[in-house]
Recover the amino acids of this structure.
């Protein structure tokens, strides 16, 4: 169960540097009442909600968790987006192979089971349709129907679009543009950088954070959380928020998060953290969002 309101109260209280008793005193309630709100056992009445919103200098909508600042700006590092990213790497790779060895090399890879399941199906179906002299528009429509039955429709549509576009003899730049239209421009650019680099040295990346000091310490308590708790946050947080929050966190906490991320994502997130240039207030806001999630999903146990 996601204790959203409790997480919001907890995060704003921590940023204000207050104990539960101190916040209770400001709101004319007991510290025990605040504890119950943060644990999701009870909720404040409407008058206290209004007073609390005024004190925290936020809207009642935000206190109720109805606003989603920065959410979906780029997307979450969740399983669906990871699958789309993995497929994007595979698509760019087979495009490069087709340029060197010809399109039949891609058909051979599909026949030998060297591609993911839906990509294998798509490549075989496209070859079959072209051999039946179907036009490109008809092939797209047929394969779009197959996409509807796939669990991850974004990845399926991207796969179909890129494979058919490959058969049109386009440049790599065009293939990257097609992929970017599904993943987002930022990730299209990073896709090329990551493809052209050698395998990432995970330990070298983690060691690069050894001397990093925390600018803002609101999420440092997550150092005491389990890896599963860290993964829960990663799966549910917007990636912009994650990067901004970690840019102001200690090196040790950055390493904890990065240790729980796949190699492909590690390259992207590491670059984002290193290049992050935001204000102190933006870091504070991002760390508040992390705290809200941590409490909401029970990663941080509130007493």
């Amino acid at each position: 169960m996601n204790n959203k309101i409790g997480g919001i109260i907890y995060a704003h209280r921590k940023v204000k540097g207050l104990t539960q008793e101190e916040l209770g005193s400001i709101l004319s309630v007991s510290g025990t009442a605040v504890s119950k709100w943060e644990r999701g056992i009870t909720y404040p009445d409407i008058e206290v909600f209004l007073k609390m919103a005024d004190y925290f200098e936020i809207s009642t909508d935000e206190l109720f968790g109805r606003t989603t600042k920065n959410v979906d700006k780029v997307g979450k590092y969740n399983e669906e987006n990871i699958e789309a990213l993995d497929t994007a790497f595979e698509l760019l790779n087979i495009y490069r192979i087709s340029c060197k060895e010809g399109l039949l090399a891609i058909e051979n890879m599909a026949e030998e089971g060297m591609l993911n399941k839906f990509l294998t199906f798509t490549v075989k179906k496209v070859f079959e349709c072209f051999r039946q002299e179907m036009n490109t528009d008809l092939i797209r429509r047929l394969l779009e129907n197959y996409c509807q039955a796939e669990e991850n429709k974004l990845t399926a549509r991207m796969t179909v679009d890129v494979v058919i576009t490959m058969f049109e003899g386009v440049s790599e730049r065009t293939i990257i543009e097609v992929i970017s239209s599904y993943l987002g421009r930022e990730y299209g650019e990073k896709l090329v950088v990551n493809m052209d680099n050698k395998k990432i040295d995970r330990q070298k990346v983690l060691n690069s954070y050894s001397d990093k000091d925390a600018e803002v310490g609101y999420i440092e308590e997550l150092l005491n959380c389990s890896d599963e708790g860290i993964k829960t946050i990663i799966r549910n947080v917007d990636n912009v928020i994650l990067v901004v929050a970690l840019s102001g966190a200690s090196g040790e906490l950055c390493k904890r998060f990065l240790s729980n991320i796949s190699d492909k994502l590690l390259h992207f997130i590491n670059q984002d953290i290193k290049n992050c240039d935001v204000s102190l207030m933006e870091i504070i806001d991002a760390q508040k969002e992390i705290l809200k999630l941590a409490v909401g999903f029970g990663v941080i146990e509130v007493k």
Notes: The chain has three domains: 4-63, 79-183, 202-296. Residues 79-101 form the longest helix (23 residues).
